[in-house]
Amino acid sequence: MAQGKKLVIVESPTKMRSIQGYLGDGYEVLSSVGHIRDLADKKDIPAADKEAYGKYSIDVENGFDPYYVVSDRKTKTVAELKRALKSADEVLLATDEDREGEAIAWHLLETLKPKVPVKRMVFHEITKDAIQAAVGRTRDLDLALVDAQETRRILDRLYGWDVSPVLWYKVKSGLSAGRVQSAATRMIVDRERERMAFVSAEYWDVEASASATGQAFGVRLVRIDGGQLARGTDFDDTGKLKKAVVVLSEAEASTLAAAVDAVGSATVGKVEAKPGTRSPYAPFTTSTMQQEAGRKLSMSAKQAMSVAQRLYEKGYITYMRTDSTALSTQAVQAARSQAVALYGDAAVPLKPRVYKSKSKNAQEAHEAIRPSGETFRTPASVSSGLDREEQRLYDLIWKRTVASQMADAKYETTTVTLEADADGRKVEFTASGTVYTFKGFLEAYEEGRDEKRNAQDSAENQSLPAVAVGDELAISDATPKGHRTTPKPRYTEASLVKALEEHGIGRPSTFASIIGTVIDRGYASKRGQALVPTWLAFSVVRLLEQHFADLIDYDFTAALEDDLDAIARGEQNRVEWLKSFYYGSESQVGLRQVVDNLGEIDARALNSTRITDTATLRFGKYGPYLEVAESADPDAKPRIVNVPEDLAPDELTAEKAQELIDAPVAGDRVLGENPENGRVIVVKDGRFGPYVQENEPVADDDTVDEATGEVVDAPRKKGAKKKEAAPKPRTASLFRSMSVETIDLETALKLLGLPRVVGADPESGEQITAQNGRFGPYLKKGTDSRSLESESQIFDVTLEQALELYAQPKYGGRRASSALKEFEADPVSGKLIRIRDGRFGAYVTDGETNVTIPRGQTPDDITFEIAVQMLADKRAKGPAPKRGRAAAKKAPAKKAPAKKAPAAKTPAKKASAKKSPATDAEKAAARSAAAKKAAATRAANAAAKAGS
Questions:
Q1: Where are the extended beta strands (E) located within 50-156?
Q2: What's the CA gap between 818 and 843, in Å, rounded?
Q3: Packed helices 508-520 and 493-503: angle between N→C axes, nearest 10 degrees
Q4: Helices 286-297 and 388-403: crossing angle, nearest 10°?
Q5: Catalytic: which of 319, 394, 778, 843?
Q6: Percent of the chain scored above 90 by pLDDT?
Q7: Rounded to an integer, what distance in angstroms lies between the CA atom of residue 802 and that of residue 761?
Q8: Cβ(422)–Cβ(398) below 8 Å
Q9: Separation of CA 54 from chain center
Q10: Burial category of 707 from C-beta neighbours within 10 Å (exposed 0-12, middle 13-18, buried 19 and up)
Q11: Residues 37, 78: Cα–Cα separation, whole Å
Q12: Of the four listed, 138, 353, 568, 711, which is most buried by Cβ atoms within 10 Å?
């Protein structure tokens, strides 16, 4: 880099390319690819610092000083930044303008330790004008924002590392607890508990058709003899009435309907017309954008944020992490101008609309989410530069922004009441219709709606004829209609985001990752758009409620967020606040005290839910099941009944449990005899999944249940000797594509015959076998293996096909051709990024680092920018710990305590662990082994090349 250039550091490769084009040759723009350092893992802390930092990588005794290390995966990035820094005369830290971006900038400053002037450059949209303006109005690093973000990071480490191990020991290994994650899980579980406790009530009404001047419209019965007819909202959650209303039975409603039809006419008793207005919605914040993307575009919160990130980095929208609903003067003018151009002068009010943010600390962003620039590009004009998901979200943001500056919609709602005498009773029917006299902002945008309870009671909007009081109308087709009250709907991602925001829990910018974690941990699954909690979530929430009540309390969690906001505003000291949270104060019990005084936790009770007097739902290592006690013999071993995985907790009623208990046994079904040895083949549904088993022939005193095919042992006579233990029978697991109900004898014999001998390699004479393994179907020849594409190939693959697979390099051309998608080179490793289909699903790889694509996303959702970020995040985490005996590890050198004054801290370094020098014999052996391996690889590649 030529002398005199300014070094601009951003966190995203896409931003890097966009901003470089706007700044020109006087600047060099480089990317940190996210965070360059984080709290150390325990294994990375040297022995000298273990006592102080060993538990959390935080010295809780000395100001909660964090121990940061640069990830091994980021050393190349840091080296590149330091190289560029040597010839720079100024550094501009241009990371995102929120707390996390401020913290990334601080970590860069602490690690690089530049000796040239350093400025903070912020912008909320990536356009030429915005970037060039940002260069001219730089500022210093905001250490209050850094404090808030570092406090959040330390808080989450303390919470997670103290609470999660309790879940591992008492519920299931691999689980996690988190400040916002656990509160969100509790919300989902609490809603399911409400649904489980809900008692539905039945009520009836009558619907009919009325007509005037040849126009028919629907009417609904609302009153009988002056008494209001029951609606769903008149019942509480136990099915009891909340007020005095008339409740019709099915018979009464049918009788009344017949009487109305017999009368055949009704008189207009009342006509009411009420004018009304609807105002537009505020421009998008992070939260409302996630909600609307979920309702209108069926995007998950994570997917919406990912698409919005791409739109921002490409320069199409403003920064997408914001709590602010404000628009700049230029943006207001742009929205108004576009509304006038599209919908006419009357489409906008005389004065611009002003929206105020509800948040006291509106995420430090300047504006709401809107199209970038001083004039908005229409969705049609940008479609060529965006993919499908980007187009859809941009269209939503554009419409919402333009509509926010448009005029109110005006309407008139007319309600007509009809009266009649039916079978000696005075009945009243009503019908409503709404007509918009001026659509206003609705020309551009109407907000989506979440599912609501008892929606069946809402009157349908319809066009009504002009009628007057006293008019007689024909009435016919009276029909009794039955209804049942409904429980509160389950949360969707959109409604959960809304609930979290209303409770003040967490930050909207983190909701997407929080919901993703809840799903990935197995605490909830998606049924359509609804989030259905698992029984695992019930166990976790029960433990937290009983032993960590404050930490999962909604108000307490919201108060933590308020405190973090106060730290961000400089109103709260972070060290004092952390002391209060961890050690306790007069107003609260500290986390340390809670963990140290947990006492005995009954894991069995935590994982149990009583369904009936004899059936208890338990959650075990392999999922939920019913434990059924024998009422006649309480001391007998309980019977185990599997619970279907797709059965929601509120659907496991006492009746459903009894249905599962009484269902015919699918396991132990006799398939037939093995013709080779006469043994009986049965299929079983075990705790580890379905499998087939080869048993000794059925004894004379055993029977087979004709209804279920289950083998039943005859009762042993008193005094009879016990049978000698039989040799362990052969078993084989069913393939994923097979089921207990449909498997036949022929298939079972094939399974029991695995591994299948495919044939012998003509060159080496070694047998090639096909079998199923822990990681899927594969071929095996000696110690060399090759993966198969599907389980069915185990039975079908031929020797020729097997030899063809072995002729290809194990890690060469064969894998390259299996890429589902390819991108350009990764900026860190310099290697091409590909998406492959692996044993555990699709994953992103650059040949060095692999990252599984999360649930809810497909390879089509992954762009180059997302792939780069996924790889960077995985590198930051470091390699997974190896099982068994640990190898010699490198330990980072001691660093000075983390302080906000950059000059007072030494850079985080790693000192290599000392190794004993290898002997000459060991070196020679290593060289020999390496040479043999290289020769074998060259031979395999040459053979593959010759074959092609």
A1: 58-59, 65-66, 68-70, 88-93, 118-120
A2: 12
A3: 130
A4: 120
A5: 319
A6: 47
A7: 9
A8: no
A9: 32
A10: exposed
A11: 10
A12: 568
SS3 at position 407: coil
Q: Hey, what amino acid is at 590?
A: G
Ranges of residues in the chain with a pLDDT under 70 are: 1-3, 358-366, 449-460, 621-622, 665-668, 687-688, 698-726, 810-818, 839-840, 855-856, 878-948
Give the angle subtended at the CA of 98 by the CAs of 92 and 102, to the nearest 5°: 45
Give the DSSP letter of residue 724: P
Q: Which residues pair with 669 in a beta bridge?
A: 683, 710
Indicate the pTM of the whole model: 0.72
3-state class of 294 per DSSP? helix
Angle subtended by helix axes 535-547 and 179-197, to nearest 10? 110
Rounded to whole angstroms, the Cα distance separating 9 from 28 reads 8
Assess contact for 499 and 460: CB atoms under 8 A: no
Kindly tell me the sign of the dihedral angle through the C-alpha atoms of 643, 649, 654, 659.
Answer: negative
Closest CA to 606 of 654, 541, 551: 541
Q: Which residue has the tokens 């009342």?
A: 270
How many alpha carbons fall within 13 Å on the CB side of residue 177?
A: 26
In DSSP terms, 712 is beta-bridged to 703
SS3 625: strand
d(CA 586, CA 565): 22
* Terminal-residue alpha carbon distance, the chain: 45
Residue 82's identity, in one-letter code, is K
H-run or E-run covering 770: strand 767-773
Instruction: Identify which of 90, 125, 79, 67 has the alpha carbon closest to the alpha carbon of residue 7.
Output: 90
Which DSSP string corresponds to 559-605? Answer: HHHHHHHHHHTT-S-HHHHHHHHHHB-SSSB-HHHHHHT-----HHH
Per the CB < 8 A criterion, the answer to whether 805 and 786 are in contact is: yes
DSSP state of 556: H
Q: Classify residue 42 by its DSSP letter.
A: G
- Are the C-beta atoms of 303 and 861 separated by less than 8 Å? yes
Question: 791 near 751, Cβ under 8 Å?
Answer: no
In the numeric block, which tokens belong to residue 855?
A: 């649930």
The first and second tokens of residue 344, run together, are 């006419």
Q: Tokens 């943010």 correspond to what residue? A: 357
Q: Phi and psi at residue 920, in whole multiples of 5°?
A: -60, -40
pLDDT at residue number 907: 42
**Residue 83 confidence (pLDDT):** 93
Angle between helices 301-313 and 864-877 (to 10 degrees): 110
d(CA 857, CA 304) in angstroms, rounded, equals 11
718 torsion bin: left (phi>0), alpha (psi -120 to 50), beta (else): beta
From 891, 701, 787, 876, select the one nearest 33 (Cα to Cα). Answer: 876
Burial class (CB in 10 A: 0-12, 13-18, 19+), 553: middle
3-state SS assignment for residue 167: helix
280 contact partners, CB below 8 Å, separation of at least 6: 353, 403, 404, 405, 406, 408, 440, 441, 445
The candidate with the shortest Cα–Cα distance to 86, out of 21, 29, 5, is 5
pLDDT for residue 903 = 41
Cβ count near 198 (within 10 Å): 17
Q: Which of 179, 177, 189 is nearest to 491 (CA)?
A: 189
Q: How far is CA 208 from CA 38, 216, 430, 454, in A?
A: 68, 10, 10, 20
Distance from C-alpha of 8 to C-alpha of 10, rounded to nearest angstrom? 7
Closest CA to 210 of 415, 414, 418, 413: 418
**DSSP annotation of 880:** P
Show the tokens assigned to 143: 């250490």
Alpha-carbon distance 1 to 570, whole Å?
39
What backbone torsions phi and psi does residue 502 show, to the nearest 5 degrees? -65, -35
- Exposure pattern of 141-177 as b/e (b: 16+ CB <10 Å)? bbebbbbbbbbbbbbebbbbbbbeebbeebbbeebbb
Question: How far apart (Å, rounded) are the C-alpha atoms in residues 765 and 705?
Answer: 49
The number of angstroms, rounded, from the C-alpha of 226 to the middle of its chain's C-alpha atoms is 51
